Amino acid sequence: MKILVAVDRNPYSACAVHEVARLARNTLANVTLLGVVPRKNVKDDLSYEASRRWNPEHPLVKALRNYREKFLGYFADEDSPYANTEFGYELVEVKRGVWEQLCVCRSARKNLKVIMRQGSPVKEILAESQEEDTDLIVLGCNKETMCAWEERSKVPQKIVNEAACSVLVAKEENKVEKIICCLDHDKTSQQSLEMINQIVTLHRAALEIVGIIDGQGLRADVDRKMANIFKYYFERQIQPSIKLVPLSSLELFISEEARHGLMALWMGKKSILEKVFPPSKVNRLIRASASSVLMLR
């Protein structure tokens, strides 16, 4: 699993790093911490030496360094899959036909990368995600200011609507006690089911599976799919409750339930939820939700 954590210098980014560290302990994910500096500020931020290094005292550089240490702090040194602790001497070819015995550090079992990019936050986050073939993008936002991210921009909403992978918008909160999962039961992927499994386990939260009915009730094939989903979680010692919601009432139901727990929505291509929640409604949901929002693809 590959997780991209987009961070700025605000407290909600520390919450996002905390959430990812807990998830990484269970999944042994490869993790990238990404900070983005607007291109217009680059001349002021770079030291402009021959090497063009970033000033180590630059606020975002310091924040990334702190987030890295915070992330690693969740793993015991001797057991950390991200630690580079195996050193030894090896003969390394330094030029054609010439070898030198150098001290070599073996790479960690899993990658923890820290990356700085220049440009628009949305563009650079999506570009990094595409280049790394990311499975999940995580970013925080301030729930007190309509989910603002770095000077009140609409970064989280745009990432959710434009990303090709799943996105978790992590809000500052004390405890997730309930996860409400609205799935397009015809098309939900195995990866999405596992993602929900991991988050339920991490938070020790109750899980509610929402079945969407249109007309008189569930179609027979959807009913079978719901039964398989229930069995999947039951075999993992999770006992979800099931709630049936008419398609005509789905938007109102999701808006109300998002106040009480983490909302997870399957928004893959041709998903029925994508029709019910176009980008404008997704934006409102993310801004209004008191809890985190997970968009699955």
List the helices and strands and how they pair.
Layout: E1 2-6, H1 11-27, E2 30-37, H2 42-45, H3 59-72, E3 87-95, E4 98-105, E5 112-118, H4 121-132, E6 136-141, H5 155-162, E7 166-171, E8 178-182, H6 190-203, E9 206-213, H7 220-234, E10 241-246, H8 250-257, E11 262-266, H9 272-276, H10 279-288, E12 293-296
Parallel strand pairs: 1-2, 1-6, 2-5, 6-7, 8-9, 8-11, 9-10, 11-12
Antiparallel strand pairs: 3-4, 7-12
Helix pairs in contact: 1-3, 4-5, 5-10
Q: Could you say how many structural domains there are in total?
A: 2
Q: Which CATH architecture of the largest domain would you pick?
A: 3-Layer(aba) Sandwich
Give the DSSP E fraction (strand runs of 2 or more residues): 25-35%
Mean pLDDT: 80
Using the coordinates shown, work out and report the CATH topology of the largest domain. Answer: Rossmann fold
CATH class of the largest domain: Alpha Beta
Secondary structure category: alpha/beta
The share of residues in helices is 25-40%
Bulk shape: globular
Distance between the terminal alpha carbons, to the nearest Å?
14 Å
What is the CATH H-level superfamily of the largest domain? HUPs
Outline the low-pLDDT stretches: 47-51
| Rg on CA atoms, Å | 22 Å
User: How many β-strands, per DSSP?
Assistant: 12
